[in-house]
Amino acid sequence: MNKATSLDQAGIVLETRNLRRVVDKDKVIVNDISLAVRKGETLAIVGPSGSGKSSFLRLLNRLDEPTSGTVLLNGVDYTTIPPRTLRRQVGMVMQSAYLFPGTVAENISFGPRSRGEQVSSERIEELLEHVQLAGYQQRDISGLSGGEAQRVSLARTLVNDPQVLLLDEPTSALDETTRAGVEELINTIMHSQGLTNIIVTHDMAQATRMADRIAVIQAAQLKRIGTVEEVLNEPIA
């Protein structure tokens, strides 16, 4: 029993313990959520609009600060990790790409450059090939489609070699055809690199296609977590 527990714990990359966030003095937007995600696993966070899904995700790399509780990254309390270091290890792709004016290459190299590191042209091209944008290094951001911009955003996150990838509705701002292509690309990257992934989506069908497990958040609380089959086949109380 103890050995099994030890092995289970060893596989956990990211864990939340009693995570809670209160705003405007008494509005609880994340309420006492505890869960764990294993190396290479994809966990989908689903629930109605306004339930606290994205608020929960933003706590995982300290874009917002919890009122109480904490997050462990490889067993280390994340409050002991400098925020900039944490956000390299726990990368995030937003619903909208939020790219900076300039070229694709400048956007991808922005993070490393801001901490005094150089990214070679070869590394940038390798990342662009990975997100199916080969030859786009000198393209201006202003000329990209929505799907292309989201792919650049993904490459900009991957350049930091994250352990955990957070995705907040990464395809919801795209048209149906583009959405399918970007979803397939994200799926391929997540599995080929062995990343630990947490994706927020309002689309249960997307969650079933992409995730190993699903967590249901309603009214700021974790109501259910389990395999896709468990969550789909058992009603939420």
UniProtKB/TrEMBL annotation:
It holds the Pfam family ABC_tran. Keywords: ATP-binding, Nucleotide-binding, Transport. SUPFAM superfamilies: P-loop containing nucleoside triphosphate hydrolases (SSF52540). Residues 14-236 form the ABC transporter domain. GO terms for biological process: phosphate ion transmembrane transport. InterPro entries: AAA+_ATPase, ABC_transporter-like_ATP-bd, ABC_transporter-like_CS, P-loop_NTPase, PstB-like. One of its GO terms (cellular component) is membrane. GO terms for molecular function: ATP binding; ATP hydrolysis activity; phosphate transmembrane transporter activity. Gene3D superfamilies: P-loop containing nucleotide triphosphate hydrolases (3.40.50.300). PANTHER family: ABC TRANSPORTER I FAMILY MEMBER 17. This is Choline transporter. It comes from Dictyobacter aurantiacus.
